[in-house]
Amino acid sequence: MSIWYAYNQKAFLIKKINGAGEDVRTSEEYMLDLQKMRKNVYVGGELIERTDPRIKPGINVISIIFGLAMDPEYEELITAKSHLAGEKINRFTHIPQNVDDLLKKQKMIRVLAQRAGGCIQKCMGLDAVIALSIATKEMDEKYETHYYSRFINYLKYFQENDLTAACAQTDVKGDRRKRPHEQKEPNAYLRIVEERDDGIIVRGAKCSITMAA
Predict the structure, then answer these.
(1) Which domains does the chain have, with CATH numbers?
(2) Residue 93: alpha-carbon gap to chain centroid
(3) Quick one: which of 35, 69, 72, 204 could link to 78 by a disulfide (CB 3.0–4.6 Å)?
(4) Is this structure's pTM higher than 0.90?
């Protein structure tokens, strides 16, 4: 029996017995949701299913995290109380509100990395969401915009559906022997091409660094 299968079955039974109604997914629910998604992932130029065996190792790692969130031994560490809805949510969708939240976030990552035997593939997505919560607030305060309210609306959806974020932060690179301005294809790097009074225009690409995509 695989580790993923064991966690999956244990989490399902725990939720079924407890009748949990909070915004926390089980491993089984995560797998069912993947099967419902449209195909938008390519491997070697081939459009594949979201449950294709070639990306199964990453799926299994994320499944373990959903499973442990339902385990009483790890529940306090991997779940938190939403500051928006007051409901129990996965800590990977939570915006830290105090020092204790930050410490639990770090401990959670270390514990899960030990259980998964390596990268847990959700850290950068969470960090990106936290960064957006700060950046959008500061932008609104400085420029009288409305980015933060839109972010909060998305965060509610993010928490209610216990989503996994993908942080697209790495440049495609192109020819790694050359610097960005030396690339034959300039769009291999995300760059600002125009600055305007109402914002900036960017071109180029960033690639996701997580299997959560």
Answers:
(1) 3-121 (1.10.3140.10), 166-213 (no CATH)
(2) 8
(3) 69
(4) no
